[in-house]
Amino acid sequence: xxxxxxxxxQLLRQIGIPFKVVKGSYHEPExxxxxxxxDIALGKAKSVSAKYPQNFILGADTVVICEKRVLGKPKxxxxxxRMLQLLSGRVHRVITAVALVKGEREAVSREETLVWMRNIExxxxxxxxxxKEPYDKAAAYAIQGKGAVFVEKVQGCFFNVVGLxxxxxxxxxxxxxxxxx
Length: 181
Description:
Helix 3 crosses helix 4. The protein has a single domain (about 5-175), classed as Alpha-Beta Complex (Maf protein). A five-stranded antiparallel β-sheet has the order 2-1-3-4-5. It contains six helices and five strands. By secondary structure, it is α+β, with helices and mostly antiparallel strands.
């Protein structure tokens, strides 16, 4: 897997897919938007596949978009609080591109999930950001952690919001006759 994301690793372990994390040489662009996702996921996978062309390499990239703004990982508590204020009472999109590469063969797919956040009180935002959970999470929350209390509804793949649409990964692997059990 061409990703150091602990959440993606956890999801692959959860479904029993054997993998190894390998850091590639791909450098993501400074400014990311949803139109670049497939290119980034493919770039990550290809940078590792160049070293291991006989293996299946999985690359992925995720963005969170609210009110036409891309929300990455917050730099500090203040930015985390601003992100959560923006998300409060709104719907946002979580989009992940997944790329699979083996030698010269490659496939790319995309998953989009809608997430409704309830109105979050200022005291809740401050308490949550003080917990330190938001700081390595896109859009400053973890749906699989304490941030779950802010989520009213999810339309689409829940695991996409965690970090990897595992059903889509399995479908891609099956298309390539890769056993997933």
